[in-house]
Amino acid sequence: MKILSVVFNTIITFIKEYYVYILVLTLLASIFYFAFIVEIAHKNAKGFLDSDFWIKNLLPNIIADVIGIILTSFVITGLYANHQKKKELKSMYSIFGVKFDRLIDITSRNILYLIYKNEGYLTWINEYGVQADLNKLIENKMYPFDFYKFNKPLHIWDFTDVSPIHDDFVVFTPRVKKHFRNIQLMSNEIQNLFDKRDLLEYEINQTSTDSYDYDLLTSEYEIVKKQLRKKVRLEIPKTEKLFEFGIQECTNGMINLFNEKVEAFNKDYSFIVPIEIRLSFIDISNNLNSVNSCLRSYNSPDRFNKLGYSDVFIYKEAMKREIYNGMVKVIEELLMLSSIFEKVKKKRKRFRFM
């Protein structure tokens, strides 16, 4: 029984996978059979082995019918597949389209900010400007941007200000993460002291002024008040060094930003995100890591002679070429991803303004 069940399931799977071809072959066989029966009934053929009938009548007609059926079948199949794809894209966009657009937009803006060090990409430049600048970068794949400007440290005014409309890679660098973690720890300590003060106030109000406990609680209350005043006035020092970020730190922040955003997106929509989008995310991450590695090699070329390069200049030029290639691949993937739902979005906009 198990063998029969396996055979049956295999047949069903085969039929489901190749149902279009099976349908076409069945139609062809049916046409051939009924055409032959009709011709014999009308005595146009003496039998199945009548060579004159085959050559002069049946074969030309069958060939013409076969060609017509094959072409029609492929056209219908193509139209149906196209319709199904549009339907699937529409369904996917209704589920995760807004967050997907946000993820691609944030990544694109930060890539441009990383290359040009222009904070406008995180604030006032709109999505059309972002797309236009991405396309400009891949027009000249040999030298897409000024490498020396790209390789310089990034200077910012104050990342603690609520400036950017969009998330930026600076706050994902290890140094800034540590800074914010310290702020959070201090904030938690202050909140704990406030809670402790309020609790002591309550206990003091519930205790008799003549009791020994009242004196203890009052003494502890004064200590907590002093600690609270000290903590509230204390500020975490921000040196000028904190506002300068080398290119290596920037690319590390860019990688962290992208990976964390993608991880959060996949966590919410892993059940429906197509494999093409997942693979594209992996390609972007791999190329960013490659760029990061090549930047380290470019700026610290101490291993050039161990990798078969006779001259440090040749080695650095090779690393620069790898960095260009990696960034271009990242931009191409971002442009491809941003175009996946383009038709769906255009259709939605048309209906919105009708």
Provide a concise account of the structure shown.
The protein is mostly helical.
The amount of beta strand, in percent, is: under 5%
Strand segment count: 2
Helix content: over 70%
SSE string: HHHHHEHHEHHHH
SS content category: mainly alpha
Parts with pLDDT < 50 across at least 5 consecutive residues: none
Total helices: the number is: 11
Largest sheet, described in full? Answer: 2 strands, antiparallel
Write out the strand line-up for the largest beta sheet, numbering strands in chain order.
1-2
The gyration radius over C-alpha positions equals 35 Å
Overall number of structural domains = 3
Kindly, what is the distance between the CA atoms of the first and last residues, rounded to a whole number of angstroms? 61 Å
Rounded average pLDDT: 79
List the helices and strands and how they pair.
Layout: H1 2-17, H2 19-41, H3 51-116, H4 127-137, H5 147-150, E1 154-155, H6 174-205, H7 212-233, E2 244-245, H8 247-269, H9 275-299, H10 312-339, H11 342-353
Antiparallel strand pairs: 1-2
Helix pairs in contact: 2-3, 3-4, 3-8, 3-10, 4-10, 6-7, 8-9, 9-10
Can you give keywords for this protein?
354 residues; mainly alpha
Structure description:
This protein folds into three domains: 2-91, no CATH class; 96-153 and 246-353, no CATH class; 171-244. It has helices spanning 2-17, 19-41, 51-116, 127-137, 147-150, 174-205, 212-233, 247-269, 275-299, 312-339, 342-353, and strands at residues 154-155, 244-245. The chain is mainly α and 354 residues long. The protein starts with a helix and ends with a helix. The chain has eleven helices and two strands, in the order H-H-H-H-H-E-H-H-E-H-H-H-H. Helix 9 (275-299) packs antiparallel against helix 10.
